[in-house]
Write a structure and sequence with these properties.
Order of helices and strands: HEEEEEEEEH
Number of helices: 2
Helix content: 10-25%
Distance between the termini: 32 Å
CATH superfamily: predicted glycosyltransferase like domains
CATH architecture: Beta Barrel
Largest sheet: 6 strands, antiparallel, barrel
Strand content: over 45%
Structural class: alpha+beta
Number of domains: 1
Shape: globular
Strand order of the largest sheet: 2-4-5-8-7-6
CATH class: Mainly Beta
CATH topology: Thrombin, subunit H
């Protein structure tokens, strides 16, 4: 049973995920309104379609985010939407974010 669940998750992915640790800051938005101040997290993995980020705050599915991701000596900007949240140990949350806007040049830096 566990294998079929794993396969169904794997089939839903449109691109390969790469484990990647980068600091990221994010600002949740509700339309044009900022929900609260900038928060910090770190990426756990990245793909062409989005990132999984480890954060200290539980974000609701559908939350829109403005993100900055530090890659070596550069900072790239992206917009995304929360597609899932899972509780991790230590009060952290693994948050899956689908990119809604990111430049091809910045996307290439993530991979």
């Amino acid at each position: 049973m566990g294998e079929s669940v794993h396969e169904s998750v794997k089939e839903q992915r449109k691109s390969r995920r790469i484990r990647s640790l980068h600091l990221t800051s994010y600002v949740p938005r509700q339309g044009s309104e900022q929900e609260y101040i900038v928060s910090i997290g770190r990426t756990l993995d990245v793909s062409r379609g989005g990132v999984k980020v480890e954060v200290h705050r539980e974000l609701a599915e559908g939350t829109e985010l403005d993100m900055d991701i530090a890659i070596e000596d550069r900072v790239i900007a992206a917009k995304g939407v929360v597609v899932y949240v899972e509780a991790l140990s230590g009060g952290l949350y693994g948050t899956g974010i689908r990119f809604t806007a990111i430049s091809e040049a910045d996307l290439a830096l993530l991979q």
